[in-house]
Input
Amino acid sequence: MRLIYLSVFTLLVFSSCKKSSDPQTRTLKVTLKQCGQLQLGGRNVNICFNSVKEERCPIDMECFWGGVAKANFSITVGLQQRSFNLGTMSVYEDYPQETEVLGYNITFKTLLPYPMAHPPAPLPPYEAELEITK
Output
């Protein structure tokens, strides 16, 4: 009887285990005017954060609408290069929050720092966090 309980317990423990991470998905943080590189799908993927147009409501103000930041990126895989736009929310057709470029699905996760109307000091450069899936 103990053997049956032990077998069922072992089966439940191992069947509930999940992989800790998907080997085909990576997160990349890229600073404005710089590039980041990662390995995905057996290829080197280079992503550059080219520009940002800030339209989000400053955190030290009250706004009717939270707003959207629009960013332009470029991706290079091998000899292929493409430029693409992303937004912090999917509000504008030209700036979706997620897109597919060169066979990679790219999602705009965060953009920091959040704008301030009256910053106590100069804000650090923008940093975009992207999730890339092959």
Remarks:
- The longest strand covers residues 43-56.
